Amino acid sequence: MLGQPIRNRQTERREATRREVLDAAWAVAREKGLAQLTLRDVASRIGMQAPSLYSYFDSKNAIYDAMFGQAWTDYLALVDKTEPTLPRDPRAALKAIARTFFDYAVADLARNQLMNLRTIPGFEPSAESYAPAVEVLERGRAHLARLGVEDPDEFDLFVALVGGLVDSQQANDPGGQRWARLLDQAMDMFADYVGLPK
Amino acid sequence: MLGQPIRNRQTERREATRREVLDAAWAVAREKGLAQLTLRDVASRIGMQAPSLYSYFDSKNAIYDAMFGQAWTDYLALVDKTEPTLPRDPRAALKAIARTFFDYAVADLARNQLMNLRTIPGFEPSAESYAPAVEVLERGRAHLARLGVEDPDEFDLFVALVGGLVDSQQANDPGGQRWARLLDQAMDMFADYVGLPK
DNA sequence: GTCTATACACCGATAGAC
DNA sequence: GTCTATCGGTGTATAGAC
Questions:
Q1: Do B77 and B104 fall within a single domain?
Q2: Is residue B8's beta carbon less than 7 angstroms from any atom in nucleic acid strand C?
């Protein structure tokens, strides 16, 4: 994909500043909302003028793109960490997978908007930033197959079900538990339907 | 709520122009996207200057608000029309209700974004525009109760399930059938879980 | 009452000096 | 690499013509 990473003081300084910009962008997004993020806010937070950001990112959407990739990469790391600890029982494993995703999504409204909703007008993730999202989905598909859910339609249904619970929770009861409470029931419903053992 | 409606040539002319503005707004939203709607675009489409719109709406968000109310009122009318034609069989009725909502949501991307997603930064529907949405939900709750689904948790699950299918369809396969195909299966899964007769 | 003309403050983005 | 200055475009407000 990318060539050999160049390691020297210049590129390291540059990467450090890029991270600084992204950290500031996340902070602004969480405080004011993802769509209310402005380059002037991000820049001023790290003592820069807005146009200076263009030395590190090609556009505002490039910043969103990097945030998108970062969020999915972080979640992929979380999946890596939790996958070995999943219960052996298929139903329990299914619930744990769904809960991990649900909690991650609900924990940060701005992040979830970026990752899972198409809420930023004109923003489409680049192939590079989309890669970890695809990888997460592929891991999920493979894992559910190992649990006995092999039909692609059933996996699509699983995705829609968990996503619907997340969206309902965020949209209709932010900060509450109204749909979070229903996640295990929903997983039992799904497990019954696909014929997982009780 | 509102006082006696005043009927005279002036207010009728005014209402007609308000409708003209809204029609133009819908057209722009469908062509360029909901968030890309600009007052200048809306105005020029009906031969006005942008500031003239303020004679009819207090702000851009007031236009969104009127569109929101209009969309839910239209859907409520559709529910009114289709409710008497629903099958007697609970499962078939459940599928028909879900299908009506799904098709309406998927038919118009911009409209669905406005009705069901929180995609416009800073827009919150007014109580007046929200009323038909509440009424639709209440109708659904009552109807499902008549079918035998009386637990509020189960209704919340139903809402999340149908909503998740809509969102997955729009986000991951716009214009396609990948999740639309799964709607009946999903309803069977739900019906099994809540114990509707086969 | 209705619409035009004009203006303001803010946005993302670019050009060019240093 | 960072700055200042500036551009075109946005929502919004208001003065004033008709």
A1: yes
A2: no
